[in-house]
Amino acid sequence: MKMNTLEIRSRFPILSRKVGEKPLIYLDNTATSQTPIEVVQAIESGYTRYKANVHRGVHTISQEATDLMEECRRRVRAFINASSTEEVIFTRGTTEAINLVASSFGRLLPLNGEIILTVMEHHSNIVPWQLLQSVRPDLKIRVVDIDERGELRLDMYKDLFNDNTCMASFCHVSNVLGTINPVKEMIAFAHSRGVPVMIDGAQASPHLKVDVSDLDCDFYAFSAHKMYGPTGVGVLFGKKQLLSKMPPYQGGGEMIGHVSFSGTTFADLPFKFEAGTPDFVGIGAFAKALDFIEEVGLDKIEEHEIMLMSHTEERLREIPGLRIFGKAPHKSAVISFDVDGIHPYDIGMLLDKLGVAVRTGHHCAQPLMDRLGVPGTVRASFAVYNTIEEADAFIAALGRILPILRG
Fold this sequence. Notes:
Elements: H1 5-9, E1 18-19, E2 22-23, E3 25-26, H2 37-49, H3 60-80, E4 88-91, H4 94-104, E5 114-118, H5 127-135, E6 140-144, H6 154-160, E7 165-171, H7 183-192, E8 197-200, H8 212-215, E9 219-223, E10 234-238, H9 240-243, E11 256-260, E12 263-266, H10 280-296, H11 298-316, E13 322-325, E14 334-339, H12 344-353, E15 356-357, E16 359-361, H13 366-372, E17 377-381, H14 388-405
Parallel strand pairs: 3-15, 5-6, 5-7, 7-8, 8-9
Antiparallel strand pairs: 1-2, 4-10, 9-10, 11-12, 13-14, 14-17, 16-17
Helix pairs in contact: 2-10, 3-10, 4-5, 11-14, 12-14
């Protein structure tokens, strides 16, 4: 059955607004996606019907809020095919999930160990490991380069492994290049050397089927706000045998077994890693976003987005002086580009005047910008609700502003 984009768009209230006098064309989906009305209504319901702290109360509202949160945990477990809800930890987002692993699992890494990252990582998969390195100066970070198409150099990745390699952490999909990395192959190689793997799945989970059991990853992180869900909600999947060995990331309420001044015991998984009051309203609403994704179908979402990307890239190649970064044959619906002699910020600012929302700058990937030899790019990224007409309007807007910027 063909996807009804107009019906889907009708479920996203923000898409009917204007920017100035122009209809909004939202092409900043890699940063955050928009939210369907059923998710908004679930948030409203959470604050008007179910706002009571979870897991702690015997009264009706607390129990109802707890049920909604734990139902979402079950939904997430099924969505990523984890073995158990004990392996699903709620965080504030991908960034916190990676920080949790670096801070907690990082304490267990052996002396003089080496951590493998890649040059295409988001800052959230670089800085936490550097923070770990600041308190564990014996640890060394090694970096995998890319080739001219924007694909990871797998030969270099394999060559970096040695007897000291103790961790590998890399993105499933690049937020700049759109490159879909061969993570299953990379995980299998790491495991053949006895090395655990952390996957930053922030850019994969909204577009691709993620099966953590099939991938056999040790940790996998993603964010609700990139998956048509609320902000401030994320997920860390971790294998139970590893999570059980890890010390708590934060201390406080909810994550304890028993507290005394002579010592404290900790709660069972997953609660050991969920200190304090969670965003239980947002978590409950995230289940509605997962319902939306499964209703439309990830295969149809990916097919639609790739169609839009291919169409747009073909049109962009007709523009003199425009250079697209990321030419991997297997990539997600992200287009990063620059135009000779024009700063990305100027392009983004004038596009906004015409109602087109794109992202400009280094996209929290400064090492990759240095590798590409540019200060930043313009990035257009697509979601299930975008249309061919919007893609063409984006191209037309570029056609209007580039002569002005070129003087």
